[in-house]
């Protein structure tokens, strides 16, 4: 009987293994057939990512509906007059910023489509069109059939040197708001070709290469000179299928049976095609098949093991049932260990087991609660520390501050120490040093207020918008202990999501109050406020710590850090402002005083200029 059971088990195991092999092989064939489709989908996503990166709109180089009408008089006469003069001056500044802030841009041309317009703008500077050495773009613009076109070309940068460019041409029709007259103009953006190719290479893997094809000029441009020949690339373009597999090029590719998966995608912005090639070797296919085969085998073995255990469970079911009955009876009677052993022997039908060990484990139901509490508290402290460290995750502070230091000195050399940009960089250095100092996560309320003031000064310079703030901080609360960077995200939320339009005045009111042992910080603004349902939803998220996606991520992070530092009874509450306009953010903290040695870190106005640059 025993040998017969063993034979059945062996036969069952062999059958399961054979079934696992057959099913695993079928799964491998199925998935290997879809590998090419998956790779082609990845190549299509890569093409869309490249297109978005190359032709993403530059906010300084995006004309409005009256753009060239405002420039018409300036580009025809070289003079500025009336109200159009102010608009033209603003456009010149935007063109200059657009070319300056994008390191990929060589130059930007803005010109009227009229032949009698004698002037053009080059990087925001007025130039005589006839005096330019590069006029190839003019012929291209006039021959454009679509509103957008691109090509790659070379221009002379000096008598002997040439610059290789990647040029995008766009036609804009502007409408006069006075007489509804249409004024047509051209904007030409010249990118450094090497920068464009480097940016493309940064977006793709080492196994991939990209070839750009201009169908109008019939031009090909590759990121890798070892790619397919021009003849082979043109054969791909002439194929009916825009994706597939072709043999690799070169002796090494032939010997190693290297094949290329290709995909041809068109640009959504300009008349341009992306030919993306990726190596696909037999080794990679073999490894993928083995992977899926093993996956199927392991899955089926696990399924067979479960079936095997279920069969044995059925065999010993009566013994388990008897054990449960004995344990239930003994627990009700409160019997001793000897009596339990006797009952276990009866319930298990005389099965040989170490019944004394089973009896002792059943009777010993006392658990050391104190040890469990200690372990739980230790686990909570560890989790709190990890989450706080994650919330305060920092990049390399020395690298960042040293880089800003270099930018600061360059700006001071070019613009002077009183220049707005120089002051902005200086304030940014102070804020970053304050934020990246991990020696103590707690500081005084006065230090937090000083950091928030520096942030508002930066925002006012950056947005060119009037931002005023009223600070009601009692003298007795300036030494209160608070967590770092609590006020700055709240102020940023008020400015970014307060519903302010360009030119609006932003007013912020920051107030501190103490009630019993709780410190309250109120931050109010004069913005458009928040709908009642949205405010109720956000307060529920803050109170119950619900993980959701929201545009108010700064408020959620501050609320989470406060609850980690002080407890879940503290945090953020949103409420309407007292005058009915804007939003008030109420922050509740446990009132504590900073240690005496922490008072040495104060902001001294005469030391601000040296703090940022003494880190080298």
Description:
There is one protein chain. The chain has helices at 2-54, 67-77, 82-101, 136-142, 193-203, 230-238, 251-255, 282-315, 317-333, 337-347, 355-363, 369-391, 397-415, 420-436, 445-463, 487-497, 532-544, 553-566, 608-611; strands spanning 105-112, 119-122, 125-128, 148-156, 162-175, 182-192, 208-214, 219-222, 243-247, 259-266, 273-280, 442-444, 467-472, 481-483, 506-515, 518-525, 571-576, 583-590. It has 616 residues and is α+β, with helices and mostly antiparallel strands. Among the domains are: 59-196, Beta-Lactamase (2-Layer Sandwich), CATH 3.30.450; 316-363; 389-611, 2-Layer Sandwich (Heat Shock Protein 90), CATH 3.30.565. The strands form 4 sheets. The protein has a 6-stranded antiparallel sheet with strand order 3-2-1-6-5-4, sandwiched between helices. A 5-stranded antiparallel sheet has the order 8-7-11-10-9, sandwiched between helices. Strand 17 and strand 18 (583-590) form a beta hairpin. Helix 14 runs antiparallel to helix 15 (445-463). The longest helix has 53 residues, at 2-54. The model is unreliable at 597-616 (pLDDT under 50). Its EC number is 2.7.13.3. Pfam families: HATPase_c, His_kinase.
Comma- or semicolon-separated keywords:
single chain; alpha+beta; Beta-Lactamase; Heat Shock Protein 90; five-stranded antiparallel beta sheet; 20% strand
Ordered list of secondary-structure elements with their pairings:
Layout: H1 2-54, H2 67-77, H3 82-101, E1 105-112, E2 119-122, E3 125-128, H4 136-142, E4 148-156, E5 162-175, E6 182-192, H5 193-203, E7 208-214, E8 219-222, H6 230-238, E9 243-247, H7 251-255, E10 259-266, E11 273-280, H8 282-315, H9 317-333, H10 337-347, H11 355-363, H12 369-391, H13 397-415, H14 420-436, E12 442-444, H15 445-463, E13 467-472, E14 481-483, H16 487-497, E15 506-515, E16 518-525, H17 532-544, H18 553-566, E17 571-576, E18 583-590, H19 608-611
Parallel strand pairs: 13-15
Antiparallel strand pairs: 1-2, 1-6, 2-3, 4-5, 5-6, 7-8, 7-11, 9-10, 10-11, 12-14, 15-16, 16-18, 17-18
Helix pairs in contact: 1-5, 1-8, 2-3, 9-10, 10-11, 12-18, 13-14, 14-15
